[in-house]
Design goal:
Radius of gyration: 22 Å
Number of helices: 4
Strand order of the largest sheet: 1-2-3-4-5-8-9-10
Helix content: 10-25%
Distance between the termini: 58 Å
Low-confidence stretches: 1-7, 279-283
Largest sheet: 8 strands, antiparallel, barrel
Strand content: 35-45%
């Protein structure tokens, strides 16, 4: 556990260093372009996930969770800006909620926190400037890179177990990774300093284990022998189809969709305050 969090700390440092480097570069670019404002913001909304336990990305109260974020944006000009953000959310899914007979029989579920550090480039479809009355609204799109941490867990017999250390498919995986955030939003300047925004952003990841489900069932005896004192729990959580009176498990039988990586989404509303280095009159 110490080693895993140590690696996560290294990843966090690298991501934050990258974000700061982007803002330093953009500071130089902004000075050349004459744009001299930063925006700080807070946001709230919901997060949900798309993966083996929610293959169609259903958006409903059964799948979404509250999220919170803080951001720092640097406007390069009226069209482009860069944004660094920290987002905190949660994802979960349960086969019991699915209309698929395979999923109902599989009977798996998970819950995981999400901690994300992201840096994105934004493009305003309309020229945007809070100081100019006719340019106070614009839809925008964004794309960037993010580092994130997750830790799927589940409950069995009243106890909560983290799934990654149990290697329920016989293989281990990292609890952090890189994602590609992209999406779109709208922003509206209420005054020359106060802006409200809303955006939707999908994060494509390079892992298939946000939900601890990826490929095939592993040999229960192998799992039991490798997990020491937690061997019996790991074996039980690797195949829960017997709890529904069916038998899906068995070495190399399908447990998930190994061809498609998981994804997660944030849908947020934000309140932003602009910091001007030199205020110009509106016109």
């Amino acid at each position: 556990i110490f080693l895993d969090f140590h690696r996560f700390s290294i990843m966090r440092t690298l991501v934050l260093t990258a974000i700061l480097s982007v803002f330093f570069l953009c500071h130089v670019m902004a000075q050349k372009s004459g744009q001299t404002d930063f925006e700080i913001g807070v946001s709230g909304g919901v997060s949900w996930y798309n993966g083996d336990l929610n293959p169609y990305g259903h958006f409903s109260k059964d799948y979404w969770h509250e999220s919170f974020g803080v951001s720092l944006r640097r406007n390069l000009n009226q069209r482009f800006a860069v944004r660094g953000q920290i987002n905190i959310g949660q994802i979960s899914a349960d086969d019991v909620l699915s209309s698929s007979q395979f999923q109902s029989n599989r009977n798996l579920n998970f819950t995981s926190p999400l901690y994300e550090f992201a840096s994105t480039l934004e493009f305003n479809f309309l020229p945007f400037d809070a100081l100019i009355n006719k340019k106070r609204f614009s839809p925008y799109s964004f794309i960037g890179i993010a580092g994130f941490y997750f830790n799927p867990s589940t409950i069995i017999e009243g106890s909560v177990y983290e799934l990654q250390p149990l290697a329920t498919e016989g293989e281990s995986y990292l609890r952090y990774g890189i994602s590609i955030p992209f999406g779109f939003g709208f922003k509206l300047a209420l005054t020359d300093r106060i802006i409200v925004s809303t955006d939707w952003g999908l994060r494509k990841t390079f892992t298939d284990y946000l939900d601890d489900v990826s490929g095939h069932y592993a040999n229960k005896e192998m799992i039991r022998s490798q997990r020491g004192s937690l061997g019996s729990v790991a074996a039980a959580l690797s195949d829960r189809s017997n709890e529904t009176g069916t038998t899906l498990g068995g070495p190399n039988r399908q447990r998930g969709d190994i061809k498609t990586n998981d994804a997660y989404t944030f849908l947020t509303v934000g309140l932003i305050y602009t910091l001007y280095e030199q205020k110009c009159p509106a016109y």
